[in-house]
Design a protein that fits this description.
Strand content: under 5%
Number of helices: 5
Helix content: 40-55%
CATH superfamily of the domain at 39-98: Homeodomain-like
Order of helices and strands: HHHHH
Largest sheet: none
Radius of gyration: 23 Å
Number of strands: 0
Shape: elongated
CATH class of the domain at 39-98: Mainly Alpha
CATH topology of the domain at 39-98: Arc Repressor Mutant, subunit A
CATH architecture of the domain at 39-98: Orthogonal Bundle
Structural class: mainly alpha
């Protein structure tokens, strides 16, 4: 309690200034990323996942379902659509073209 009988406001949670309204912790993040990196956050994450898929398709014999799981895609269909959207070929065709040969 303040000495005049008024209550002092509680301290602001970490990461917020006292005058900033709730829910606006980082309002500029979604708009700042495209200016700085060229992609919105969701697209940037998808591109990182697709790069992981590409590397796994080229260097392992893991199934598409296993690669989808390891790269953070929910299903083989989602990985296939995203791969075609970005690379213009399905993942298995990419593997056939650029993957290392299977050990004999």
């Amino acid at each position: 309690m303040h000495r005049l009988g008024r209550r002092e406001p509680p301290p602001a949670p970490l990461g917020r200034s006292p005058g900033r309204p709730r829910g606006n912790a980082a309002p500029q993040l979604p708009s700042a990323l495209p200016r700085r990196h060229g992609h919105h956050p969701g697209k940037a994450i998808e591109l990182l996942r697709l790069d992981r898929v590409r590397v796994l398709m080229e260097t392992t014999l893991a199934s598409t379902a296993e690669i989808a799981r390891r790269a953070g895609f929910g299903s083989e269909e989602r990985i296939r659509r995203a791969f075609i959207r970005s690379f213009a070929v399905p993942p298995l065709e990419w593997r056939a073209r650029f993957g290392s040969p299977a050990p004999t």
